Amino acid sequence: MESSSVFGVRLSLKQRYFLLLCIAAAGIIAYRFSRNHPEAKRMNRVEGLRANSSQFTLERKPFHILGGSIHYFRVPRAYWEDRLLKMKACGLNTLTTYVPWNLHELERGVFKFEDQLDLEAYLRLAASLGLWVILRPGPYICAEWDLGGLPSWLLRDPQMKLRTTYSGFTDAVNSFFDQLIKKVVPHQYSKGGPIIAVQVENEYGSYAMDENYMPFIKEALLSRGITELLLTSDNKDGLKLGGVKGALETINFQKLNPEEIKYLDEIQPQKPKMVMEYWSGWFDLWGDLHHVFAAEDYDAPLSEAGDYTTKYHLLRNLFSHYHTQPLPEPPSVHEQRAYQPAVIQQHMSLWDSLRLTDKPFKSERPVNMENLPVNNNNGQSYGYTLYETTITSGGALNSQNSVRDRALVFVDKHFVGVFDYTVQELAVPDGKGRRTLSILVENCGRVNYGKTLDEQRKGLVGDILLNKQLLRDFIIHSVDMKPAFVNRLESSAHWLSMRQQPSFPGFFRAKFYVNGSPRDTFIKLPGWGKGVVFINGKNLGRYWSIGPQQTLYVPGPWLHKGDNQVMVFEEQEMDGKIQFASSPDYGMTVDV
User: Fold this and answer.
1) Neighbour tally for 39: CB within 10 Å
2) Whose CB has fewer CB within 10 Å in the chain, the N or C terminal residue?
3) Annotated catalytic, 277?
4) Rounded CA gap, 470 and 336, in Å?
5) Cα(first)–Cα(last) distance of the chain, in Å?
6) How far from 26 is each of 94, 297, 515, 592, CA to CA, in Å?
7) Residues 6+ apart with CB under 8 A from 473
8) Residue pair 549/587 in contact by the 8 Å Cβ criterion
9) Neighbouring C-beta atoms of residue 414, cutoff 10 Å
């Protein structure tokens, strides 16, 4: 599943479609299944999960894993219980989840484990519902997640070597694990908790830059009190380099291949044969078609909104054969509504919003996003960065492939064109005197997999030329779309009525009324171009008219009875209203 920069740019689209179950919808699938119920072993525990023979044991009795992935950071907290109950009703007995370092430590040394990121609450909930847990704490998780879950501030170090024993990386891992693992330890099986196994890193065999790295991660877990069974996870080729002594090797694939299982058995005889990731889907690309396939080979059991798919019913029927008692009835799905269209009432240009951003930074040369002196000197992780300088002539503007990943170019706020990976030269019109050249660069997402992780710096990563001359003396604005900025926008007195002609890029806002209890819905933006949507201050994600996805999911718990505010950042064109739908629209389809 090698990714390229192009894939990295577009991952967030399909990330929404597989929100609940990621790419490993079937997650962990062992070849023998259990009759043991988690609640039966809560007290008087003697021996946890072991892999000392061809079959797992728990409390020294045969135990079989039937598991799947639901990531707490991808599901609104209000819906955690709903999704886990649906998992259990499907016949699963084990939950797997990653831990996203980049969310828990947005700024170096500042840790967040509350609200949506309350991992301990998620573990307690799983235990209360009778689900075992296999935890996958990383520090790298892949997960079709920005930089594989590694925080972008690591890239401030020009010598950084991610996923190696380079001290700049290991020091950061140790600091994070100091905080994370102490929260995990009390939830281990041996202490009465649901965690029966912990994964050592993730798919390291496909990276394998440092033979000392996996032993370092293993020791980082053990030295902080992890005592349960350790696992690694790799595809067939990665198995050759991804293992570490003392950890059970498991395999990942998209289709059941007896030869790959045989290979696993050859390199690890007399051990349980376990599939950690059974990839049941793939991601879409912006501007492409939506990928579909027959449910017998493809798809997630639950949609982003928690709806049952054909896949769910096929799996539930299959898994029911491995239970002596009837499975619980699947919970009812949540009602979805199409609210009345919201008419845009106010707008604010990007240029006017700059007064609400952090203080601009002056620099002779362009500075990449991660190295900007913002966010307590942790740099900028996401969003847009505006680079402005003065020019005195028109001519050929060349990006030298220094734009990561896409940029709108303006002269005195008049649109000139777009730089991206395919367009690297634009014609700047002639004009009199000194004019302002503005380059608004969008970070479209860092690759999550492959050997280019160290190259994922964003913004302008090099020089820009005008008529073959280097541009210098920039003023740089961080437009990171973080909650603090969005809150300042919402309370600003600088919004203008739609009676005044809006300019682009700009922010547009409207209100819509929820009568009664809020329900899930989907925002649809026909007539709009490209941008970001916020509901009551929460970032829903990106939209782009080129599709394939044409809607954004709005969880009901993010709405409230009465007036709700929707705000859209739009780059180039807009319709006068925001529409809602009662079902998602993923665009035109094509068979994988």
Assistant:
1) 12
2) C
3) yes
4) 54
5) 15
6) 11, 11, 38, 19
7) 362, 364, 389, 390
8) yes
9) 12
| pTM for this predicted structure | 0.93
Q: Which domain holds residue 443?
A: 358-479
Residue written as token pair 């682009």: 504
Residue 380 corresponds to which tokens in the numbers above?
A: 């900028």
CA 377 distance to own-chain centroid: 23
CB burial readout 230-239, b (16+ within 10 A) else e:
bbbbbbbebb
Q: What are 145's two structure tokens?
A: 């997640």
In a domain, 232, yes or no: yes
Check whether residue 524 and residue 395 sit in a common domain.
no
| Dihedral sign (CA 478, 481, 485, 489) | positive
Q: Which pair of structure tokens corresponds to residue 483?
A: 């909650």
| 566 in the same domain as 472 | no
Residue 182 has a CB neighbour count (10 Å cut-off) of: 11
For the question of residue 304 being annotated catalytic, the response is no
Three-state SS letters, 135-188: EECCCCCCCCCHHHHCCHHHHHCCCCCCCCCCHHHHHHHHHHHHHHHHHHHHHE
**Number of domains present in the structure of the chain:** 3
pLDDT at site 45: 83
The residues, ordered by sequence, that sit 6+ positions from 129 with a Cβ below 8 Å of its Cβ are 81, 84, 85, 88
- The pair of three-digit structure tokens given for residue 266, joined into one six-digit string: 């050859």
Q: State which H helix or E strand residue 82 sits in.
A: helix 80-89
pLDDT at 283: 84
Tell me which of 479, 496, 518 is where a domain ends. Answer: 479
Identify which of 208, 199, 209 has the alpha carbon closest to the alpha carbon of residue 139. 199
> Are residue 310 and residue 366 in the same domain, yes or no?
no
Tell me: do 257 and 315 sit in the same domain. Answer: yes
Please tell me the distance from the alpha carbon of residue 267 to that of residue 242, in angstroms, as a whole number. Answer: 12
Whether cis (ω within 30° of 0) applies to the bond prior to 548 is yes
User: 296 with 424, same domain?
Assistant: no
Residue 333: inside a domain = no
Cα Rg of the chain, angstroms: 25
Sheet holding 274-278, edge to edge: 29-30, 274-278, 248-253, 229-234, 195-199, 132-136, 94-98, 67-69
Report d(CA 290, CA 550) in Å as an integer.
11
Contact 97, 91 (CB under 8 A): no
Angle made by CA atoms 302, 96, 70, in degrees to the nearest 5: 25
Q: What is the CATH number of the domain that holds 419?
A: 2.60.120.260
310 lies in the same domain as 432: no
Buried b / exposed e along 145-170 (16+ C-beta atoms within 10 A): bbbbbbbbbbbbbeebbbbbbbeebb
The single residue of 105, 144, 201, 203 carrying the catalytic annotation is 203
Residue 6: the pLDDT is 27
Residue segments in the chain with a per-residue pLDDT below the cut of 50: 1-41
Look-up of token digits 């734009």 = 403
Q: Which of 144, 277, 304, 571 is catalytic?
A: 277
Per the DSSP assignment, residues forming a β-bridge with 411 are 414, 437
